[in-house]
Write a structure and sequence with these properties.
Helix 4 crosses helix 6. It is built from 6 helices and 12 strands. The chain is globular, with a radius of gyration of 24 Å. The strands form 4 sheets. Strands 9-11-12-10 form a 4-stranded mixed sheet. The longest helix is centred in the middle third of the chain and has 21 residues. The chain has 286 residues and is α+β, with helices and mostly antiparallel strands.
C-alpha cells in the first residue's frame, strides 16, 4: 500500500515524512491510485482543474509546485464544457420583471452580508475570524514539550539551529536567524501534528500560517519525526542537548531534501517528544 502526502498529495512508497515535494510532515494511506501529472492538453471538458494563480497553468491534481513557474498557489476552478444558460429560454424582458428584480435584490443583500461576515465587519454565526486574524493557539499536545530524558528541549532547539546552519553552509544555502514569530508558527504546526497522531486533534490548518506575523508570505515548512527505538537507540542515550540536536539534523539531512533558500533569513524550530518516545520536529524557514 503506497502512502501520499496529506498536504500536496504526492505518493511515497513508505510512511516516512517529510514529503520531498512540499516538506509536509504527515502522510496518509493512498486509497486511490495517483495518475501521472497531466499537461495543458490533457485537461478534459467538464469537471474541474487546479489553476496556478501566478502563471495560469492548469493541473489535474492539487500537487504544487506549478510545473511551469514553481508557484505553490493552486486554486480549484470548474471547467465548463458548454454554456449553462444556452438552453434557458429567458429574455431580457423576463429578467427585468419586478419579481425577478426583487429576487436579485434579496440575493445581493445576502451576499453582501455574508461578505461582511467573512471579513469580520458583521458578526455572523459560523464566521470565526480568529480574533481579527490573530494566530491560532498552540495545541496542548500529549507528551513532553519542555524536558525529555533529562534534556531541555528549548536548549535542543537552540542547538538544532546551530547544527542546521552548519549543514546549510556546506550546501551554500545561507545562514538562518531564529525568530520568535516563526518559532510560534513552528510550535503550532508541530504540536498540532503530534495532537493528531498521538491524540484526537484535527491537525494543523492549512491557512493558519497567514495569521502569524512572519517575515515572508510563503514559508517553507519542514516537518518530520524520529523514532529512535526503531534503530536500537533511545533518548536516554544522549548525554547533552547538542548531541540530540545534531542527531535530529542528521536524520533530516539523510532524507536528501534540498535546503530551501530563504526570503528573510529567519527560522523557527519546535521539538516535541510524544508519549511513545517519538521525537517530532518542525522547522519553518522564511
Amino acid at each position: 500500500m503506497k502512502w501520499r502526502c496529506e498536504w500536496c498529495g504526492k505518493p511515497h512508497e513508505e510512511d516516512d515524512p517529510p514529503c520531498d515535494n512540499c516538506g509536509h510532515g504527515t502522510f496518509e494511506k493512498a486509497v486511490q491510485p495517483v495518475g501521472p501529472e497531466s499537461t495543458d492538453d490533457d485537461v478534459q471538458p467538464g469537471g474541474s482543474v487546479w489553476v496556478c494563480q501566478d502563471c495560469g497553468r492548469q493541473h489535474q491534481r492539487n500537487s504544487p509546485p506549478c510545473n511551469r513557474c514553481g508557484s505553490a498557489d493552486l486554486v480549484r476552478e470548474p471547467v465548463a464544457d458548454s454554456d449553462p444558460l444556452a438552453d434557458i429560454e429567458t429574455s431580457w424582458r423576463d429578467v427585468i420583471e419586478p419579481k425577478y428584480v426583487a429576487g436579485y435584490a434579496v440575493v445581493a443583500v445576502l451576499l453582501g452580508v455574508i461578505a461582511l461576515g467573512g471579513l469580520g465587519i458583521v458578526p455572523l454565526p459560523g464566521f470565526d475570524t480568529g480574533a481579527s486574524g490573530s494566530p491560532p493557539a498552540v495545541p496542548a499536545a500529549p507528551g513532553e514539550a519542555d524536558t525529555a530524558a533529562g534534556l531541555s528541549l528549548s536548549a535542543v532547539e537552540d542547538a538544532y539551529v546551530d547544527a542546521l546552519n552548519e549543514q546549510r553552509a556546506r550546501a551554500g544555502a545561507g545562514e538562518l536567524t531564529r525568530d520568535a514569530a516563526t518559532d510560534e508558527a513552528a510550535a503550532y504546526y508541530n504540536k498540532a501534528v503530534v495532537e493528531a497522531r498521538a491524540g484526537d486533534g484535527p491537525g494543523p490548518e492549512r491557512e493558519a500560517f497567514s495569521r502569524f506575523d512572519l517575515a515572508c508570505e510563503r514559508p517553507a515548512v519542514m516537518a518530520y519525526r524520529v523514532d529512535y527505538d526503531r534503530v536500537g537507540q533511545s533518548l536516554d542515550g544522549f548525554d547533552s542537548e547538542p548531541a540530540l540536536a545534531q542527531s535530529l539534523v542528521d536524520s533530516y539531512a539523510i532524507r536528501g531534501i534540498p535546503y530551501r533558500s530563504s526570503e528573510a533569513g529567519t527560522v523557527g524550530v519546535d521539538v516535541h517528544v510524544a508519549p511513545d518516545g517519538t521525537v517530532f520536529v518542525t522547522h519553518v524557514v522564511c
